[in-house]
């Protein structure tokens, strides 16, 4: 028998409401004193806005299956998965909230401070409960006098509405920490999202056991279900439109800076999705050789290349991760094209190696071999053979990073999956990864011809493993050099 964490009889709920302290004045004095008359006035005269007979969210069936897999992995243990809290940016302003991947994956919900609890129940199963802040109490004034009140932050779902939408019984999160502190039996929690939940569990959990839970939730996401694949396609399509926006406004970027590119793409991400999935890399000229150039404060000059690495995150929190390297004036110079074509050829080899049954490492090895061949052909590695270069890894002075990674709700998805389930694994249908070779010649690299210096090229696409090969989810954006030029000419008009 599982213990009930929270008592839920109607009598007790009523007693709690009656016992609640009225809120009349904020302690920081931001609001003037509230007269008894005003406090009384604000209690009533509000319509019943409860929504009834709501349809479940589109992914409710998928989240139920994901919770069932989690339940089967940890029988008899209480599992606690928080959404996380707002993070302070400065003083009393916060960063935009983004629910933890683990919580959103298992619930389809994105409410700040929410917590999913799976309680052991029956022989080997679990009962799920989602703990949320309910609608604001009007009797005690919290809805208009408390900073978390709905008058300040917007309407929330009632617990009943949340239950209908998510298909998970819902309870008041304000009572969860105390209940967890008193609960007995084995428990695991996903760490790093909610300090109050961790504090309540501090003497009940161990880092090692919690890490096993985190690893399971990372590995569970290696193979995407149909809902997730559709979301990734949506993210790639919106990202393609964001890249088009950027090309159309390159003249404005030339008149200002890389920031114009960052802002242009961000507008598309916010209009079509939740956000950008990671800081956009808007790297013009030599900035393209800095792998994570996100300062984006440099000049955009005709004749140079723009390396744009950006992805829209959908409203359900799936992100694209796409890079195109574009000639700012619309035409590659001969040396730019020579380096671009080498990277394109490497990417083609990498994409061709993505298929069911292939080793995960194959696409990396295929792309690196092409790049090593080019570097040898160009005379940058003396008279070493390609095999010797690869054995010693000498090409990496200019290729710098791995050729790709899993993609999903996190841009570097499944990041704590074990080596045997990720880099040492075999690809299967439903895996989604990036293929993103690059060549980067630093502006101060004296080992390469002067004309190469300051050129960085990466081409990155999002590739889904299918039953018979792969599908490029980001193929709405051209990659081949002539096609890139034609596409830019058409957009620039
Ligand atoms: N945008 C980071 C990456 O491509 O992995
Ligand atoms: Mn990227
Ligand atoms: Mn990437």
UniProtKB/TrEMBL annotation:
Residue ranges of domain Aminopeptidase P N-terminal in the record: 57-198
Enzyme Commission identifier(s): 3.4.11.9
Catalysed reactions listed for this entry: Release of any N-terminal amino acid, including proline, that is linked to proline, even from a dipeptide or tripeptide
InterPro entries registered for this protein in UniProt: Aminopep_P_N (IPR007865), Creatin/AminoP/Spt16_N (IPR029149), Creatinase/aminopeptidase-like (IPR036005), Pept_M24 (IPR000994), Peptidase_M24B_aminopep-P_CS (IPR001131), X-Pro_dipept-like (IPR052433)
Keyword Metal-binding set for record: yes
Record field: compositional bias (Acidic residues): 1-19
Keywords annotated in UniProt: Aminopeptidase, Hydrolase, Manganese, Metal-binding, Protease
Protein name: Xaa-Pro aminopeptidase
Superkingdom field: Bacteria
Gene Ontology molecular-function annotations: aminopeptidase activity
Family membership noted in the UniProt record: Belongs to the peptidase M24B family.
Requisite cofactors: Mn(2+)
One Pfam family named in its UniProt record: Peptidase_M24
Region (Disordered), start-end ranges: 1-36
